[in-house]
Design goal:
With 335 residues, the protein is of the alpha/beta class. Helix content is 46%, strand content 12%. It has 15 helices and ten strands. The radius of gyration is 19 Å and the shape is globular. The chain binds 3,5,7,3',4'-pentahydroxyflavone (QUE). 3,5,7,3',4'-pentahydroxyflavone binds next to helix 2 and helix 14.
Length: 335
């Protein structure tokens, strides 16, 4: 059996092209893929004929659904902490490399883009997406936290939008991702192949000719409530403000926060608050430390089990309620 490489990297015209090629896993990143991407970026850094890097995802359904969290869970449960550490350390090094890459880095995001997928796109100069793409930082559902530099990135989104996305895992479609600042351009799905070819031929200037006008932000009517509720100074106050808001949006947001790991809500809140004052490198370093403790918490194995292993979507969190999360336990996890 000849397996196709999970990262395709080649020079095409003026650009270096990277395709995430694990479509059955929605192009979720494993350590091999992270290393393949890093190798390509390192190789092209000083090649004058490579004027930009363009990354996309194979299969038509996903850009990248995140990290290979099933493997991380198995390693964490088996006590193989060095492997867990290697994954996150190399992933975050890649995120930082993209942020400081000396050439335009252009992500063509058509489909699912979550977690690690945001980490290999959002620090690039252009993040071009399609109307039906879906963006999210859903890590509270698996009792991780918004990582890949999201503790730096999310507090820099407008108002308290970042905290809202972090705690609820809310999904944004393509146009809304542009409004939020996660993506930069909206193009029609049917234009993506021509756009990709045009960048290879003409360089990143070709993008302007494909960008569509943005429809209004679908969260426009909720923006004030998002800032009010998710701008609160504690998780308890966020919940109190959502409870005081009779809107469907507030009910749904509260419901989302009630479904995910209570402990993760508390440590993710603190991590995103902390990231507001850090640069990307410092945020990534703090995140790497946080992976060491959060992946040992029972909710991590349970959350990944419920979402990705057994897929019963019925996790048993411990503790089960946000109100029962022990601040001393969270302080130790964040230390
Ligand atoms: C929360 C997450 C992830 C998730 C779902 C969540 C995540 C992740 C994946 C994922 C999806 C499809 C795959 C895969 C992983 O889903 O981080 O290997 O095939 O990687 O609710 O954080």
């Amino acid at each position: 059996m000849t397996d196709e490489p999970t990262v395709l990297a080649s020079i095409d015209g003026r650009i270096g092209r990277i395709t995430l090629n694990r479509p059955k896993a929605l192009n979720a990143l494993d350590l091999d893929m992270i290393r393949g991407m890093q190798r390509a970026l390192d190789a092209w850094r000083d090649v004058p004929d490579v004027h930009a890097v363009v990354i996309d995802g194979a299969g038509g359904r996903a850009f990248c659904a995140g990290g290979d969290i099933r493997a991380i869970r198995a390693q964490a449960v088996a006590g193989e902490t060095a492997l867990v550490e290697a994954f996150f350390a190399e992933e975050y090094t890649l995120n930082a490399c993209i942020a400081t890459y000396p050439k335009p880095y252009v992500a063509l995001i058509d489909g699912v883009c979550m977690g690690g997928g945001i980490g290999v796109s959002v620090y690039g100069q252009m993040r071009i997406t399609t109307p039906d793409s879906l963006f999210a930082m859903p890590e509270t559902a698996i009792a991780l936290f918004p990582d890949v530099g999201a503790t730096y990135m999310l507090p820099r989104l407008p108002g308290a939008l970042g905290m809202y996305l972090a705690l609820t895992g809310a999904r944004l479609k393509g146009a809304d991702a542009v409004h939020a600042g996660i993506a930069t351009h909206l193009v029609a799905k049917s234009d993506m192949p021509a756009l990709s070819a045009a960048i290879a031929r003409d360089g990143v200037a070709a993008v302007a000719g494909f960008a569509q006008a943005l429809p209004p932000f679908s969260l426009a009517a909720q923006r004030a409530a998002i800032d009010h509720c998710f701008g609160a100074d504690s998780v308890a106050d966020i919940i109190a403000r959502l409870q005081a808001d009779p809107s469907d949006w507030a009910k749904e947001s509260l419901g989302a926060m009630r479904g995910v790991s209570p402990s993760s809500v508390v440590w993710s809140f603190a991590a995103v608050k902390r990231g507001a004052a850090l640069n990307l490198d410092a945020a990534l370093a703090a995140e790497l430390k946080l992976t060491r403790t959060t992946t040992q918490h029972p909710d991590f194995a349970e959350g990944v089990r419920a979402v990705l292993v057994d897929k019963d979507r019925n996790p048993k969190w411990s503790p089960a309620r946000i109100e029962d999360v022990d601040p001393a336990v969270i302080a130790a996890i964040l230390a």
